[in-house]
Amino acid sequence: MSVSPEKEAALAARMAALGIAEDDLRETFVRSSGPGGQKVNKTATCVHLVHVPTGLAVKCQQERSQALNRFLARRLLLDRIERLRKGLAAAEKARREKIRRQKRKRSRRAKEKILQDKRRQAEKKAARSRMDPDGE
After folding, report:
1. What is the DSSP string of 100-122?
2. Which residues pair with residue 57 across a beta bridge?
3. SS3 at position 26
4. Could you give the percent of the chain with pLDDT greater than 90?
5. Contacts of 18 (CB under 8 A, 6+ apart)
6. Cα(78)–Cα(12) distance, rounded to whole angstroms?
7. If pLDDT is split at 50, 70 and 90, which confidence band does 90 have?
8. Separation of alpha carbons 133 and 112, rounded Å
9. Integer Cα distance of 65 and 59 in angstroms
10. Are the C-beta atoms of residues 61 and 34 closer than 8 Å to each other?
């Protein structure tokens, strides 16, 4: 199973638009792991692609075909380079860090402060309630 010529041409055009040449890429083939049985264990279908100028590396072993994995690895690498150039990588990292901080466990002192504020608010609300004429 190979990639259609139209998709190959689109990938080449995308590489040209980003200013990436085939010479900038270092490609090695490794034996895949995981499902696929004897075929996977005997052939080197996993593609390890490195963009030498940026140092970005991609490993692709999604398919059992080396040709298809080469295509997919190039596409993944172009996606990463695009994100890097557009600054989306930094924004994505900042978003992940923000979520991580939100999920982080609060310190004991912070918890006590929050509870103290809640108690103070409850006291205010209790003071606002109407006084019962019976004294109850």
Report:
1. HHHHSPPPHHHHHHHHHHHHHHH
2. 50
3. strand
4. 52
5. 78, 81, 82, 85
6. 11
7. confident
8. 36
9. 14
10. yes
- As given in the structure block, the two tokens for residue 56 are 């970005």
Choose among 23, 40, 25, 2: nearest CA to 76.
25
Look up residue 123 and give its two tokens: 């006291």
Q: Residue 84: which H helix or E strand, with range? A: helix 66-86
| Amino acid code (one letter) for 4 | S
Global pTM reads 0.61
Beta bridge partners, 49, equal: 27, 58
Residues 56-70 as b or e (16 or more Cβ within 10 Å = b) = eebebbebbebebbb
91 residue type, one letter: A
Mapped onto helix, strand or coil, the DSSP state of residue 39 is: helix
Residue type for 39, please? K
Q: What is the mean pLDDT of residues 55-81?
A: 92
Q: What are the tokens at 33?
A: 């792991």
Q: Determine the Cα–Cα distance for residues 66 and 99; give it in Å rounded to an integer.
A: 38
